[in-house]
## 1
Amino acid sequence: MSQSSEGATATAPQTPSAKDAAPNDTNAPLSATNPATNSGPLWARGCTAWRRATSGKTELRGESTPPTRRAQTTLPAVGIALVLLTVVTALGLAMAESAIAGADRTPDERRAAAATADRLVDADGPLTDRANVLNQSRVAAFDATALRRASPPAREYAVTVELGGRRLAATGDSTGGTTIRRLVLVERRTRATVDPDGRRVTLPRRAENATVTITPPPGTSVWTVRANDRVLLHDDGGLRGTFTVGLPAYETTRLTFQTAGQLPDGSVRVAYNAPRTTKATLAVTVDV
């Protein structure tokens, strides 16, 4: 009995305690009384579980779309792209064709418009008193017939003439044509009347159609009227009445009166056509 008891005691296995378990042994039993001893195995097991869960989600997310469904999704986008490409190509061809046609006709339009504009502002043109100075009366009377007569291109093409934005004449619809512009003066004449200051008076350049009316008081005679140094009127017996005199066109004219006796105000009156000029733009448009 004693030997058997000792043998049993010698051969009985000893169960390791939680304190003696290896810290890195993942199979060691968990201790409820000492949580510090559980930190290593629990952390390792948690990481392993997290990696397995994440790996599973990644595989699910990375699951590819079936090829048939992807092709069906792409077809509408390809169709829209083809439609847009066709529209852009057609617009580009139309613009190129229009540009080529415009380039072919622009030189002819420019030459015709420049020739017409130069003709209208020439010193011998149908609208001018001198180069680049238009006569207001001639401008008012200008029409399509006069345009055809003055400009050969107007007999063949659509030509429009405008002055200061106002249409003067047209031989057709020249919308979209080539325009040439010239800066001009438009001259109009107004009737002006002046009384001499004593025995002299000064008239501006280009004064025209001057008349001198002399009505001296009794006892006063006006013998001579001079323009600068030239004698315009002379009468030894005295001048009385209204006289038409010629004036220099391009210089200021000073009229002087030679009298016997006093010449009060109102005894002499001079009337003339005075020029008034304004700037304007003459535009000629030609469409071939």
## 2
Amino acid sequence: MRVVLALAAGACVAACSAQGAVPSGPLAGAAAPTTWTTPLQRAAACDPTPKTWTGMYVANDAGGDVVRFTPPYTGRPQSLASVANPVAVAFDTKKNLFVTAFYAQSVLEFAPPYTGSPIAATTVTLSNPYGIALDDHNNLFIADFGNSRVVEVAPPYTGSAKAIITNGISAPNGLAFDPECHLFVTNQGTNNFTEYAPPYTKAPIATGGKGYLANPTGLAIWKKNAYVDDFKSGRVLVFAPPYKGKPVLTIATGASTAPYGIAFNAAGDLFVGLYSASEVVEYAPPYTGNPITTMMYLALPAGIAVGPK
């Protein structure tokens, strides 16, 4: 069992001690449409952030809820969905909010305004789920950490797994797409991240971060570069294609901050959730200076996502 960094008081503590790692998808083969006709029209089929979305949604792990900040992100957030130990958030094309409920071993779906009971919950067997993402057909992908796999579940999310991804996966945490619909996964078991081309069930087409990462959690893709939260070292490491070399940029968030969630808005601003610092910070391009905004009033923030204001 690997020796790992323990989290202070959130969902990961007991489970990670048992699994030997610190915690935290993606398309599954269907052809993506080339155009959109809804108000959520996207720049590319796998671009997760419509330009009109400026809300910052945070899985407030120790707070037991999902909260939303709105620009300029300096006030108190609004408490939305009540979820015990939420660790990841994501949106589908209908503006529905999905939340990983860690101890419930499930992913919950909430309709706007996200303050009521969930309208759906996954029933597929999971073991310590973390990162989630949805494709343009609203298929849900889940980093099934304890089973070292990524599973795909189709709407209405109450059936068995539609697809299972295991090649190159080891204790997965974060999931992200690039605009070409390639799937990226952080692997805490091997301290790297892997890239998959559709239909994602074959061997990874690239592996990055080996030798540079220590407990990678969230990741996001921006202009082909992979931005990876390095939980243990308190940094975000940036890798350029083909991802095999050393980082092209290091963003130091602080040795004791434990970066966990990560997201971009449509303007290219970078948001990083700092688990141990109980903050979310915002960086402007080129991400080499100090944060331009700090969001507080949080309790162990885990996954984050840009969503409807």
## 3
Amino acid sequence: MVTQRDPLRLRPLLERDASVISQAFAEVGVHRPVRQFARYIAEQQQSIRQCWAALHDGTFAGYVTLHWNPLYPGIAGKGVPEIQDLNVLPAFRRLGIASRLLDRAEQSAATRAAFVAVGVGLHPGYNAAQRLYAERGYVPDGLGVTYEDRYVQEGELVRLDDELILHLTKSLRPVPAQGTLAQRLGTPPLSSPSGGSAGSSSSGGSAGSSSSGAGAGSSSSGGGAGSAGLDGSSAGGGRGAPRSSLLSDSMD
């Protein structure tokens, strides 16, 4: 019986990859500067971040990074790593590549942490990413949404762009043995950053009462279609490090 060859290979980012990845996005009209990936690689060398490239039959298809010391206030200093900047080029979507990249990031996170976090935008460009994370067991952290790494208060008007983020977490170990993320992080359950009861309005309504705010979310930093040769033979993160950037309803 002939074993089918797996065309997908994941490996750490290399210094020569920075220009190749940047060019892959430039070819589809998306600006992702070389310095962004050079920074990722430098942080990888300093053990601040881990980064993986996905190669499909030797051609660059996507990447993901895992930041060990994220600046998002909900988890900063709590020992919870954050998956950041997950991208799969449209030409390679619907091949399971996003899931494979997440598998690798979660496996690495599990060696040092009981939970892993991810931030996801809220506008339609993130619809596919939102579904993927929900299917993998990610849930909102219950602390609200942030804009430019600052919690948005009820009734506040903010721009609907990539900076408006909903933060999710996933338990990497059995929840009963580890407790909830709120318990682990010392966050009172059913509370918001502003101190109101869960489900209540900012005017101090009881739990379960309605709120006047409706959220909507963001994403324009992600990659588009196209590919560039990345066969291995040629060629921290808070602000400035995109979260997930999957701009397709069928990215996986």
## 4
Amino acid sequence: MLKLNLYITAFAHLEMQPCTPSSDRPSLRQASEPDNTDIPPMQLRRMSKAVRMGIGVAKKCLDMAELVSPDAIIVGTTMGCLQDTERFLCKMIEQDEKMLTPTAFIQSTHNTVAGQIALGLHCQGYNNTFSQHGHSFESGLVAAALLLQEHPEQQVLCGGVDELNPTTTHLQQRAGLFSESLSAGEGAGFLLLQNSANTALACIRSIHLFQEKNKQAALDQLKTILTELAFDPQVNHLWLGITENDATTLLPPESLKSSAVFFKKDLGEWGTVMSVAVTRAIQQGQDKSTVFLVNHFCGDWSVLQLELL
């Protein structure tokens, strides 16, 4: 468990579009298009949705803080820019690896989102991308905490971005990642972090990350972690990225009804969904309260302790 004081002064995320069911694919939780009217249309057309979401939400977060540019940019992404990756690989096959344009490859790398945000904001500071599967966004938070220990005067823009891709979604469905109650999703969420409580809206007090393929063993460990953090269902709120059936291992049904929010019902399943769960918890929470966020993605488990100021 990593205890820290990551103060959040601004936040932003994209709202979700209505769910679109399909007979041969899982229902999709698609994010709304961000407001990128200040970007030239020709340049915007060349951007994948992941890049458009990242740039739009990052700017929205900075606008909330009335800040032109941060000192550092950190992005977590599980799958990167999948649309451009698939486009490049298909062109390789179709054109027999000849006369390939490099644009799709350049735009398909995982750090494209962070790089495009920095270019748009003219930010020449620290810039890093984390792709640690279901811990990508959380790893970015840990990196931000370490950076702020070295440079306590700085402000760090940290977020998570992932986009839907029909091919990958189909493969994930075949692998059993989705169910009737769990839709494939996408989105972006960003936080502006600092080392001081001045003007802060919330504070991340602790992060606990672990990997466990055995579900029962993982749920037992979650219960131990929540006990160590002094979680009280009568006082605290619990935002859960697990199924209601699994949640009954942590709390009795009556406590779940009063204190739990199952955020994947609305957001869907994707690797950095915790980035939007955190921003929504701040937006919908009550001052002077503590929210515990629990997430699971393909064997990666995380617990965040969020204090609303």
